[in-house]
Amino acid sequence: MKNIKGVRIRCKNTGQHMNIDYTEAANIIRNCKSAYILIHQSPDGDCIGAGTALYHILKYLGKKAKVVCPDEIPERYGFMRKGYIDEDFEPDFIISTDVADANLLGALKEEYGNQVGLCIDHHISNTGYAEKTLLRPDASATCELIYELMEILEVPLTDDITRCIYTGIATDTGCFKYENTTARCHEIVANLKRCCNICYARINRDMFDVKSRGRMKIERFVSDIMEYYLNDQCTMICVTSDILDEMNVDSSELEGLAGIPLQVEGVEVGVTIKQKDEDSYKISMRSANDVNVSEICASLGGGGHVKAAGCLLHGTLDEVKKKIVDAVEEGIKKCSATA
Question: What distance in Å separates the CA atoms of residue 318 and residue 4, rounded to the nearest whole number?
Fold first, then answer.
């Protein structure tokens, strides 16, 4: 799943961006001969599911395909890799799934950032870095878009595809409890269950209930060190490298931690700070009600969804915290003014 150096791409991004519909996206997929499918750094259930499901679709259509990620795929998502075979080849086309910004390609950006011919995404903050973009911000997950493309391409549902699409939708909707849970995503899941008898309950348990001892330890710790700002409307937890070393917890245990700050009654915006290196921090932001955290994160150089967004900030931890609190304060004021 790591980057492959020295690949020559025959189809390059012309720099002219265009939003397209499902039919045109399906035609692009149908007409390409081989493709790399790029997914974002710190991969989650939706980008892994969308990328891997698209891999199976391309393989069914007789194409060569490979999922490429700047980071290792966490072990907890290994079940989605059933039926996936990694192979080396020279791609004719580059597709990205669930990648709203070329910066999210991490180490892949330099080589592939301006090579993406088709981006398939559901983030309202998508920057339009690809030559053509299939963008549906009202979709629950990028996996929902992959499902719609699969139907247009007349590719049959298999257990491998179903595992990927279900996991992507389930994880991006918080097991169907977030506001992005739509009637359409329920319809898609209902059809998955009619067609394929995989163990959906096992996926739900593994994704939402099972936690390692290290994860349990870090959750207790961050709850104790949670910080409160703006008359307790904003909560913040911060996990530094020193904390991980002291607790002997791997950084992979931090996925999904962003929901904890919103568990406090009365909180409008929850913030999670994770240290990346000496002077850079990954920020995850969640909104409980009407505050648009996508706009807040966009003001800090990031983006995402209205209710869930993120960014990367540089500086000392105190400087990063101040930037965040000032931006959240403006976001809350803007929300109050338009209420």
Answer: 38
pLDDT digits (tens, 9 = 90+) for 134-186: 999 999 999 999 999 999 999 999 999 999 999 999 999 999 998 899 999 99
- Exposed (0-12), middle (13-18) or buried (19+): which is 271, by Cβ within 10 Å? buried
Q: What is the 3-state secondary structure (H, E, C) of 3-65?
A: CCCCCCCCCCCCCCCEECCHHHHHHHHHHCCEEEEECCCCCCHHHHHHHHHHHHHHHHCCCEE
On whether the CB atoms of residues 170 and 45 are closer than 8 A, the answer is yes
> What torsion do the CA atoms of 258, 264, 270, 273 make, to the nearest 10 degrees?
-60
Per-residue pLDDT band for 290 (boundaries 50, 70, 90) equals very high
> Left if phi > 0, otherwise alpha if psi is -120 to 50, otherwise beta: which for 176?
left
pLDDT above 50 (res 288): yes
pLDDT at residue 81, rounded to an integer? 94
Burial-class residue 110 by CB neighbours within 10 Å (0-12, 13-18, 19+): exposed
Q: Are 83 and 160 in contact (CB under 8 A)?
A: yes
In 3-state terms, what secondary structure has residue 187? Answer: helix
Among 111, 104, 107, which residue's Cα sits nearest to residue 119? Answer: 104
pTM comes to: 0.85
Q: What is the DSSP letter of 231?
A: T
Q: Which residues contact 237 (CB under 8 A, 6 or more apart)?
A: 222, 223, 225, 226, 227, 257, 260, 261, 271, 272, 273
CB atoms within 10 A of CB 13: 19
Contact between 323 and 313 (Cβ < 8 Å): yes
